[in-house]
């Protein structure tokens, strides 16, 4: 099928129509609300700085405890639906901090409520047999319960799940290795009795232990609605901080670049791209028009992916996008120059163009592979501390990486198909 240029051309037309339907409106029947997400520097948001209390943490474990706290906070914010937060750690001497930036969240109090401050999680047993009140057990209090030695640092994660038997919403919890051992001892001792879970000295739930749990994985059920289970999972994750944290700075952040600066950046990009498009037409004529057409499809596909993934755009991210457009044009220039050389050697134009694509591919591949490797290093998927961890750097790397991969598709497949179907020369 893909060896037939006309069929590929038809697929590209359909792809273009689909991409336009994603890029122009903000809603689609199967994708819901679609919009371009802007970073803190473009849209504003909230910035909260937390100080981690390492008093009770051994010196050798403080760095890992800080990183664990960062991961918990990042997971908690994502669970609440905040788009692409930037959560970083900072250390200066004995001062350990977590910096949280949340695009689009302008209410700092809402941000702090999402993050939580101390969120102390504590599993407690009743000190006496609880009395039934109607169909439910008496609400536990600190006075009627005692701690069993399981805290937030022992909980690995809590997630919304659904019962395989009844399909009802429930909460699946998983403990760390240390927590699993303690939890096994506690559940063995409390079979048939309730185990209360407190968050910041307030009872969240008190399910009855039905059987001893030895593998560190359990579920909390009890006729919950889906939203109740989701909220409970959020509360349990909120307590999984390995160290107490306190808010030391909170502020709403305006768009640092401002609407005027953003408009000028876009204007500069449009002017640059227009110059490139005019140059391609002036230099290569009809081939330049087809290359510009492929560039339009490149832009539509890139924006669609930004919305579908989604990618949060910052100004460095926009820079990466514009840079990748230049690389996409560069591929076409290599192909067209090779095409001219092949024709000057006496080959018919239709053989020369196919030969140009084949021979230019080696140079295009090598140049783009080098850029792809650089993007991977800058994006730092393993979150290694000796590589960049800044959200702005990662945003630039991600948009450039996507752009290079898409440019390979448009520069080779799209441009080649347009030439095969729409371009002809006199033999």
Automatic annotation (TrEMBL):
GO cellular component, one term: plasma membrane
InterPro entries tied to this protein: SecD, SecD/SecF_arch_bac, SecD_1st, SecD_SecF_C, SecD_SecF_C_bact, SecDF_P1_head
Annotated GO biological process: intracellular protein transmembrane transport; protein targeting; protein transport by the Sec complex
GO MF annotation terms: protein-transporting ATPase activity
Membrane topology: Multi-pass membrane protein
UniProt domain Protein export membrane protein SecD/SecF C-terminal: residue ranges: 246-424
Principal location class: membrane
Keywords: Cell membrane, Membrane, Protein transport, Translocation, Transmembrane, Transmembrane helix, Transport
Cellular localization per UniProt: Cell membrane
Transmembrane segments: 265-282, 396-419
Residue ranges constituting the Protein translocase subunit SecDF P1 domain according to the UniProt record: 67-126
Superkingdom of the organism of origin: Bacteria
Domain SecDF P1 head subdomain: 144-243
Pfam families in the cross-refs: SecD_1st (PF21760), SecD_SecF_C (PF02355), SecDF_P1_head (PF22599)
Task of the protein: Part of the Sec protein translocase complex. Interacts with the SecYEG preprotein conducting channel. SecDF uses the proton motive force (PMF) to complete protein translocation after the ATP-dependent function of SecA.
Family of the protein in this entry: Belongs to the SecD/SecF family. SecD subfamily.
Subunit structure: Forms a complex with SecF. Part of the essential Sec protein translocation apparatus which comprises SecA, SecYEG and auxiliary proteins SecDF. Other proteins may also be involved.
Protein name: Protein translocase subunit SecD
Record gene name: secD
């Amino acid at each position: 099928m893909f060896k037939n240029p006309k069929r590929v051309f038809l697929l590209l037309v359909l792809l273009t129509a689909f991409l336009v339907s994603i890029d122009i409106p903000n809603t689609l029947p199967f994708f819901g609300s679609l919009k371009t997400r802007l970073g803190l520097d473009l849209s504003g948001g909230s910035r909260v700085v937390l100080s981690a209390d390492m008093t009770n943490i051994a010196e050798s474990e403080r760095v890992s405890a800080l990183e664990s706290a960062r991961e918990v906070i990042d997971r908690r914010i994502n669970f609440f639906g905040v788009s692409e937060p930037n959560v970083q750690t900072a250390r200066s001497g004995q001062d350990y901090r977590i910096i949280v930036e949340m695009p689009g969240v302008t209410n700092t109090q809402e941000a702090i409520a999402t993050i939580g401050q101390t969120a102390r999680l504590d599993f407690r047993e009743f000190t006496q047999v609880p009395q039934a009140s109607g169909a439910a057990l008496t609400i536990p209090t600190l006075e009627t319960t005692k701690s069993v030695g399981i805290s937030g640092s022992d909980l690995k994660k809590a997630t919304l799940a659904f019962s395989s038997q009844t399909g009802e919403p429930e909460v699946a919890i998983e403990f760390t290795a240390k927590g699993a051992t303690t939890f096994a001892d506690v559940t063995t001792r409390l079979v048939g009795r309730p185990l209360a879970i407190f968050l910041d000295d307030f009872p969240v739930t008190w399910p009855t232990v039905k059987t001893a749990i030895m593998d560190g994985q359990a579920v909390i059920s009890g006729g919950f609605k889906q939203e109740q289970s989701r909220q409970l999972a959020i509360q349990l994750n909120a307590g999984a901080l390995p160290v107490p944290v306190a808010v030391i700075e909170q502020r709403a952040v305006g768009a640092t670049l401002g609407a005027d600066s953003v408009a000028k950046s876009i204007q500069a990009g449009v002017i640059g791209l227009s110059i490139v498009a005019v140059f391609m037409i002036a230099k290569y004529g009809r081939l330049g028009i087809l290359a510009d057409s492929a560039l339009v499809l490149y832009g539509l596909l890139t924006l669609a992916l930004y919305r579908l993934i989604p990618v949060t755009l910052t100004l460095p991210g926009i820079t990466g996008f514009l840079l990748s457009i230049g690389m996409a044009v560069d591929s076409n220039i290599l192909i067209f120059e090779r095409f001219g050389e092949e024709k000057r050697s006496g080959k018919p134009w239709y053989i020369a163009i196919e030969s140009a694509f084949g021979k230019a591919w080696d140079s295009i591949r090598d140049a783009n592979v080098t850029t792809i490797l650089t993007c991977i290093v800058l994006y730092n998927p393993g979150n290694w501390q000796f590589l960049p961890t800044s959200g702005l750097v990662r945003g630039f790397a991600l948009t450039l990486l996507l752009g290079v991969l898409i440019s390979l598709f448009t520069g080779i497949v799209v441009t080649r198909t347009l030439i095969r179907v729409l371009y002809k020369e006199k033999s």
